[in-house]
């Protein structure tokens, strides 16, 4: 596949994303399997401990404490898995983009020196997004109440659901777009950390500068990946929906257990399949921005030529001896 260093349009980025993913499917899916694997193990453990929640109050309290601690532990493991998978994916895309090859083991092994930085970036980013999301959510609720009171809509009014829908489209959608835009600002933080060997704050500052002019492209990529993830998850969830229908029809809650196990497995599959789409596209746009703003293609070409061994200059043969002139 041609991954030449040159500016690319959004359609070309998406085309190269799916081409690179299709040609190296096992590599990228294997790298991306780490975060959803943590959730899969946790879900199966919770499913197995569900019987403990039906015993005595003391047993239920102990089981609740265990579940709380397990949830905290799996959140930490998921965070680390997400950080590792993001860094390894960025490294793998970089290798293929620059004309080399790699493996799952090599991708994870070579990002070990940057694990702490990548985890710090992901943690700082998620905490910031949660704080911003809570603040925007509070604003949404307050403005929704204000709109309802201003319109004179009572709690039991039939117009209340309509007002909530209108408030969602007027306020909720802009909030979601704002959160996606904030994500786009720092989308290059992990690639900058792994590929340019920067610190946590330096990587985030580098991303804020480098994403200028490409943030809406990143938002579009994320939205498309979310749509594909939703579509894949819904197709895989069809057996689970069948199980719910059978459970409602028969009243046998225990019959839902195998379908629930399949749903957890389906979430693992959809997460492993969709995660590389975002990471590959983000890394390609990262290089595209460096080509546009920093002439990275020329830098890489000169570095490549500088690393090539010099060929020795050809040595001219000695001149042939001239016979003495005949007298």
The main β sheet shows up as:
none
End-to-end Cα distance = 72 Å
**Share of residues in helices:** over 70%
Rg computed from alpha carbons, rounded to a whole number of angstroms: 28 Å
Contiguous runs where pLDDT drops below 50 for at least 5 residues: 309-327
Structural class call reads mainly alpha
User: Care to count the β-strands?
Assistant: 0
CA-based shape: globular
Number of domain modules = 1
Mean pLDDT: 79
Helix and strand succession? HHHHHHHHHHHHH
Which percent range describes the beta-strand content?
under 5%
Q: Number of DSSP helices?
A: 13
3D structure, described in words:
The chain has 327 residues and is mainly α. It has helices at residues 10-23, 25-32, 34-48, 57-97, 104-110, 115-150, 160-185, 189-196, 200-210, 215-236, 238-250, 257-294, 296-307. α3 packs antiparallel against α12 (257-294). It starts with 9 loop residues before the first helix and ends in a 20-residue tail after the last helix. The relative contact order is 0.12.
Write the SSE topology.
Layout: H1 10-23, H2 25-32, H3 34-48, H4 57-97, H5 104-110, H6 115-150, H7 160-185, H8 189-196, H9 200-210, H10 215-236, H11 238-250, H12 257-294, H13 296-307
Helix pairs in contact: 1-12, 2-12, 3-4, 3-12, 4-5, 4-6, 4-8, 4-12, 6-7, 6-8, 6-9, 7-10, 8-9, 10-12, 11-12, 12-13
């Amino acid at each position: 596949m041609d991954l030449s260093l040159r500016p690319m349009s959004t359609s070309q980025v998406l085309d190269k994303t799916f081409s690179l993913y299709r040609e190296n499917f096992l590599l990228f899916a294997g790298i991306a399997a780490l975060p959803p694997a943590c959730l899969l193990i946790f879900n199966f453990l919770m499913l197995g401990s569900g019987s403990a929640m039906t015993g005595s109050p003391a047993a239920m309290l102990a089981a609740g404490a265990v579940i709380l601690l397990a949830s905290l532990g799996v959140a930490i493991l998921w965070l680390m898995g997400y950080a590792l998978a993001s860094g390894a994916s960025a490294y793998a895309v970089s290798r293929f983009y620059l004309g080399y090859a790699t493996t799952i083991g090599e991708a994870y092994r070579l990002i070990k020196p940057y694990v702490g930085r990548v985890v710090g970036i992901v943690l700082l980013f998620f905490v910031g997004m949660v704080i911003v999301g809570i603040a925007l959510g509070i604003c949404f609720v307050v403005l929704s109440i204000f709109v309802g009171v201003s319109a004179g809509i009572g709690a039991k009014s039939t117009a209340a659901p309509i007002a909530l829908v209108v408030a969602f489209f007027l306020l909720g959608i802009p909030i979601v777009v704002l959160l996606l835009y904030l994500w786009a600002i720092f989308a290059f933080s992990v690639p900058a950390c792994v590929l340019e060997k920067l610190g946590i704050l330096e990587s985030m500052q580098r991303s804020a500068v480098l994403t200028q002019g490409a943030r809406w492209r990143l938002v579009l990529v994320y939205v498309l990946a979310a749509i594909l993830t939703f579509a894949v998850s819904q197709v895989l969830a069809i057996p689970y929906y069948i199980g719910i229908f059978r459970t409602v029809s028969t009243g046998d809650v225990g019959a839902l257990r195998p379908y629930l196990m399949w749903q957890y497995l389906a979430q693992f599959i959809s997460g492993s399949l969709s995660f590389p789409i975002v990471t590959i596209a983000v890394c390609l746009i990262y290089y595209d921005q460096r080509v546009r703003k920093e002439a990275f293609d020329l830098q890489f070409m000169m570095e490549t030529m500088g690393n090539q061994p010099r060929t020795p200059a050809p040595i001219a043969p000695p001149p042939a001896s001239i016979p003495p002139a005949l007298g």
